Amino acid sequence: MLSAKLTRSYFKASSWGSEPMQYTPAELLDIRGAARPDKEAIVVLDADKPRQAITFGELKTKTEQLAAGMIRQGLQTGDRVALLCPTSLEYSICEYAMVRTGAILIRLHVSVKSSDSVKFVLNHTKCRWLIAHIGDRGENYRMLTDMIPSLAEQGPFVQLGADLPHLETIFMISSDAELYPGTLPWTTLFEGIKVDDLATMQQRQATIDGDMIHGVYCTSGSTGNPKFVAISGHGMTNLFRAFFDRMGLNETDKVMGDRPMCYVGGSTSTTLAIGLTYISMKTPTTGPEAQKGLDFFFKCIEVEGINVPFMFPYMLHELLGRVQAGMDISKIKVSLTGGEVIQKDLLRGLYELGYHMVNAYGCTEIAVICSSLTSDPIDIKIEKTGIGCDNEVKIIDDNGVIVPIGSAGEVCVRNTYMFVEYLGDEEKTRQAKDSRGWYHTDDIGVMDENGYLSIQGRRTEVISKATVKIYPSAIEKVFREHPKIHKVVAAGIPHPIIKEEICLCIVEKPGAVLTVEDVRDFCKENLQWDETGSPGMIPDYVLLFDKFPTGATDKTDRKKIRTEAIRRVEAGREGCKIHV
Predict the structure, then answer these.
(1) Opening angle at CA 553, ends 328 and 227, nearest 5
(2) What is the pTM of this model?
(3) Which has the closest alpha carbon to 28: 238, 247, 264?
(4) Please, which residues bridge with residue 171 across strands?
């Protein structure tokens, strides 16, 4: 806790982690490779394929060779290279070779599944090269031939199409790359590397500044068109470092997550920043074979000796059941979760069983904004999002003024290694990052007198009912505790007179049967009417869903839920009215 209580919603973290590292990612590659050449750096696990691993020494050597081949092939500092590749060792080799060249890596998001989407990314970011993995079933090459119908007849070094004015070459990652005409096998970049090529690469590497843009994360576009979040070299090495220091991690730890490598949440950069082993699990833990993935995930924790697992909220129900059934968690040092609001009873159940877990709130642009501490009392870890992590955090009103503690406003964050810009979009960059370096999250939050945050939702999701602004999270927080409710979303339904009404969208717990009467009674007992005698936060409608739609990152897609709620309410407004 702070020695002096806050009176306004501004918090600056101090001495949580270490001083920022000044090494570039390329320098860290060389340091780690020389110090521990035989230690595993990155491991890729797939339930249907053999275990793959690369040591620090191998990563150093392979990235030197690939970078030298890229430079020999004509890649210049500042060139943009797109990477269309699933989680794999090849992904990491490409990613870390690029940091030696001074070129900018554009990480295509896994949600990019159409030729039009690929073309949009390539044109927006002005990519000169595309490095593409064939895909698990050849799907990526088929997508490229849809994008360039004449690809099979093209030479690999000619202009690939008038509608792709910047793209010159496509390299294909495949053991049979010669079967994919119009592309070059990426193995050609490794072939015939000479001492002079490596010397040229080292000369180029020496010119790279940590403030230069190293790479770009393409967001899923869940809040509109995809954003192209440009991260500097120093940002890459430091975004997570202070947070992991704060968690007490060191080079002896083994971290595992199931996020794709193209996500900032699946980044293996902690391998460089901390010197630990990062295990990336490719088998999906969502979708039609979710249980297969979950079973494999928990098996890997035991077999690989994982002591720092990343588990997103949808995995915690499975974890709690396994711990209650006798799963040994004594060797887990600390676990990380986050991404969306988690049910209090689920969190409490895990904490009371002695599970060491940190709940984090963040985004691609700035990584971790705040998190709980393992030393926090259980009630604080359940009620609060967390306290700032090596950041300045403030809550402001619509005029940009810092609000008193306990008041809601927009969460803004500032640190020295946040994202540089939205590549190719100066206007969006200015909207998100102001002239004083504050990143505006568009999230509504409340700060308490000790600097802890509670996130209320996004500004764009606030429901305007007559003259009252209602935060969906305030309603959801109450209904999340209902014994029959698994998930809940409050959405605004357009109304011609009072702007919006409140629709409660619910997914029941397995085996539960929820009635409108149950919801009506719960409203009367747990939600207050406002001071004018109006029903305030009382929902006007209730709808049951079999499951909520999710986006590419497996988060609940609130936009799709609202769209479906509007359609269903308008189709039968009285049939879903609560009438409290």
Answers:
(1) 140
(2) 0.86
(3) 238
(4) 131, 184
